[in-house]
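Progress report, Aim 2. The chain analyzed during this reporting quarter is listed below.
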Amino acid sequence: MFQLPFPVRDANASSGSDGLGQLPEWDLTDLYSSEDAPELKRDLEWLQQECAEFASDYEGKLAELDAEGLLSCIGRNEKINAIAGRIMSFAGLRYYQLTTDASRAKFLSDAQEKITVFTTPLVFFTLEINRIEDARLDALFAAKAELARYKPVFDRIRAMKPYQLSDELERFLHDLGVVGDAWEKLFDETIAGLTFEIDGEEMGIESTLNFLTEQDRSKREAAARELARVFADNIKIFARVHNTQAKEKDIIDRWRGMPSPQMGRHLSNHVEPEVVEALREAVVAAYPKLSHRYYDLKRKWLGLDRMQVWDRNAPLPMETSRVVDWDEARATVMDAYEAFDPRMGEIAAPFFDKGWIDAAVKPGKAPGAFAHPTVTDVHPYVMLNYLGKPRDVMTLAHELGHGVHQVLAADQGEMLSSTPLTLAETASVFGEMLTFRKMLEKATTQEERKVLLAGKVEDMINTVVRQIAFYDFECKLHAARAEGELTPEDINALWMSVQAESLGDAFDFMDGYETFWAYIPHFVHSPFYVYAYAFGDGLVNALYSVYAEGAEGFEDKYFDMLKAGGSKHHKELLAPFGLDASDPKFWDKGLSMISGLIDELESMES
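Predicted structure tokens for the chain:
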């Protein structure tokens, strides 16, 4: 089933629209010139025919192929993936530009359904690979080095072997996937169509969320209460989407014999469950020295006895509300990238100059931000909702990091370029860190330094603490749904059960905050995705500490890691840096960097 695995950034990462300069828009013609393009029609026809021929040529015969024959089979499979991926990327990107446009939604749905029908005969491919004996595969790899290069792909496919169903059931589930996609579209269209009113002005969700970072506390409160009102009005739809998606997952996992709802995500991320649990335990244990300690500091800076949820992302009192225009944002990020290594700047430059970024906030546009790799013979596209806050600059740095990573990994080809989510955040978070350090270098006053440090700590807390709290919420949601239908009130209670623990005693929670789970896209599009952010942040903090210590040849090793794409396990990728994510102490190294920044902020108070 071909889907669009867009890594949508936390929707808090957005920000006004005047004085920003000329914001770039996507030029999708590198994919297709239009939905009526003859090339698109040609590719759909080719895909239909090639899928049928592939099934005819190989079904029931994979185990008999010699090394040369299996390599040829993989080459054809990659071409199918490339053409299907190009079509779905074009359809999906057009849709995300204007999710409220019925014709774009129809075009995406029609493309998805056609490709699902075309590719259903290919379900045999992974099923038969899993029936080949280990010794037979090893002999084929030994016989041909070009084939052995694909061993990581086979390893990931064969990790699903214990959970594989009959051929008939696998084809059925493949076909049924379009129904789950329809629920995702309902979520997207509902979110994009929401309207909020503040001070008599109607706006969408991105602009409303932006008010939560306003200096004026009354505006922040007004936005929080308006968000709560609109979410409450639509809560039955969001609860229905979550109930349906979670139940569908529960049924499929039960049939497959998955030991937990999270296991499918761990397998796709090529990460061991115990590594994720070690990360989770380390972060939860660190709540008191991270979020609890920081928000108590922030409460004092804001002059409050108690914090409200609309104060979580408030700017500091001494922070200016200066708008960062697009040219300045570009210069800031590019300077940081080029200072690390000129090669990084060369890879990043075309994103700005060739229509690879869509930056403006527009009615109906998808919220948040992402970088989508499309296919390896085109290039990635970055979506932002840029409104000129300093945090938007960091979001640009983040998504551009994804783009650089995707460009470097493209040489691996369709089957090996895709990086597991746990490692997909590496270049993005590293790009943020480079940008932050460059901005900190340029700080001329203690006050400016404090604002930058506090902003970075908040971003890290949002990336590590908040995302692990999200993960715990999802774990509770899926466990509860397995026991029966959940009312909106049930889901609200699960949401609130993780909030106080993660944020600490500094907060009170307004009536209505219990519905704020409703707008988080990850829960619907990619269940259990969210721990990848915390994984990536912890990994990069450890990685950056190696870089800061002046490790010899770091830049070359870093580029080699990004170029590897999905061809290596996290243990192999981190070994050249002397790091090992399976060591529980590894996570403490990353969390200590955040704690150290809070130490520095505390020292400024004395």
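Residues 277-603 form a domain with the Neurolysin; domain 3 fold (CATH 1.10.1370.30). Residues 191 and 479 are 25 Å apart (CA to CA). These observations will guide the mutagenesis work planned for the next reporting period.
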